[in-house]
Amino acid sequence: MEQSWAFPRAPEGEGDLRVRIPVEGLSFMGATPSGLHFADERTGLGFRYGQATWVDANDRRTELKATYEAGQLLVSVPRALVEASAYPASLAPVISPELGLDGAVVTPAPGNQVRPVVAPNGLDFLVVWQDDRLGGISRIYGTRVTRHGLLVDPSGLRIGTASGTERQESPAVACDGGDCLVVWAEFVDELNANILGARVSVGSDDAVLDSTPLAISTAEGHQTAPAVAEGRGDWFVVWEDTRGAGSVDIRGARVMHDGRVAEPEGLAIATGPAAQRQPAVTYNYTDWLIVWVDEGADADGDIHGARVSPGGVVLDSPALVISSAAGSQRAPVVASYYGPSLVVWEDSGQGGDTDIHGARVTVEGAVLDEPALVLGASPHGQFSPKVIQGRMPFLVYWDELDSGKWSLQGTRVTSDGEVEAPGPRFSVADATWSSSAVALSDFGQLLVVWSHQSLGGSEADIQGAMVPADGSEPLRLELSLAAGSASAASEHNVKVAFNGTDYLLVWEGQRGGTAHIQATRVSRTGEVLDPSGISLGGEGSSQRIPAVASDGVNWLVVWADGYNYRTSDIYGALVSSTGEVSDPRGVPIRATAAWEDTPAVASNGEGYLVVWTAPGYDRQPDVLGMRVTSQGEMARYPLSVTSAAQWRAAPPDESRAPAREYD
């Protein structure tokens, strides 16, 4: 697609030259450094309107940024540039199609991505996680996500910079409407860990504002488990601290909008011989409210709290007792909105089952709910509560485990303490789910993120879902993508087959430095049906050279597999029309001590013929084959397709694979 304007002479008129182009039919999805993105909200199909280039008669080129406002594209050429140019001149933007949102058909980042957190910045979101893609040493990564589900940073932002072997863990994030503060624990060695941070601009091309992390607390001992909240344009960071006598205390510090740490030694918020753990913090529009687990009375854990003034003065000593019920109270979170704050926690006081309880705390520090409010109780386990800041009624969510599958459950709590009807449910089937987090935009879109590990898999990725404000079908997102993962260098040998309804794309991608087979279904309208991809082949070996065919309903994917040491075998797996895989590890179609390679497959509508090359008696490659039924049944021995004592060269356009088709 091309678009350009020619100017044989300098345009007449005063001021900047402005080119306006009306846009209809597709929704504006957002702007990234690569341009403006427009797409069909259902299918994700659309185009990118990139930056424009002004070229004069002397071939002097000037890059110009396109903007979007009021249903029109706008490209402005400064008057000074118009007057200084030699003519004829031209203006041309870069326009390119997009499949999905910034290319959803990509391979997830290698290694493990865990502990995601997310914060809204008014219209959009910042998602942050712990990532060990760099040689197994965990660093802090993130990506900005628009309310439409567009990944502004599809390869990920490296937020936690470090040059050595320091481990970075437990990220937390809060945004002030312009910038966000990301904090984390950095383990210098086994005896010392610091609290560091970096500001991230959601709306700027230069996203990470602190190339050298902010030193929030570098005292001797372990400073870990940070939490952060925003208020009055600044931030307050709290953490677990083991300095001094070795007990675990709660300390905190204000971080100003310019990155200055107001209390570099840390405010002592909760100290004593007993351990204080798992801090959380909110701004109640008057003071900071910090809550934590106190293990003093019975070691099971109670919920305590304290307020800190905007000037950094601790207002509650001794601490507020928010819950001291029988049993264990853990994992507190807290949120506020012009009135009492809501503290929510895990409670295992009723027969050992873990439920979700809560209590309101006034601006003056009074606890309003004794006994606590019961927010979530069922025969299943409820874990990891979260509550939305700055929203009334309060939206409370938690993870629930039922029959081996995780879901996100929710409820609403009014300022009067009334527990309303359950909120939206979100489920992830056939996967492990951990460390989920939620955030809500000013327009009502709910972003749910979690660490996802497929059953039988060994690596975790960060995935998400954008739930529209009207409660319609969520948009699934793959968030932790590797740098360059959308390039041909990391995904190649792409093949495709049509089953009469949808397409199945298969390709060879890199995962953890080893080649693996990935796949996704795409509808005939271009909708990516498996945005997180379908993984084929097992761990611990490489899979290469995929091929795919359809019998009109389902697909058979075959590949060369290095499962047997120092050999190559032919493996395959059936993929149903709904994307289910019969055996994700794959079943051996031909596995011997010989080198079987370059598979290909075709179907006659009733079954499949798989062919491949293997060394013959004369050390030249023979072409062998195997018939496979639509149910995956195979003959005991392969067919000998060619075995003459000469070189059996494959057609060059098949990349050395044997040609195949049915009559």
- Any idea what the radius of gyration is? 29 Å
The N- and C-terminal alpha carbons lie at a distance of: 39 Å
Q: What is the 3D shape?
A: globular
* SS strand fraction: over 45%
User: Which fold name is given in CATH as the topology of the domain at 491-654?
Assistant: Neuraminidase
**What is the level-2 CATH architecture name of the domain at 491-654?**
6 Propeller
Q: Which class best fits the helix and strand makeup?
A: mainly beta
Descriptive account of the structure:
The structure is a single chain. This protein is mainly beta. Among the domains are: 94 residues, no CATH class; 151 residues, 5 Propeller (Tachylectin-2, Chain A); 164 residues, Neuraminidase, CATH 2.120.10.10. The protein has 1 helix and 49 strands. Strands 1, 3, 4, 5, 6 and 9 form a 6-stranded antiparallel beta sheet that branches. Strands 10-11-12-13 form a 4-stranded antiparallel beta sheet, with no helix packed on it. The chain has a 4-stranded antiparallel beta sheet with strand order 14-15-16-17, with no helix packed on it. A hairpin with a 7-residue loop joins strand 43 and strand 44. The two termini are 39 Å apart. The C terminus is likely disordered.
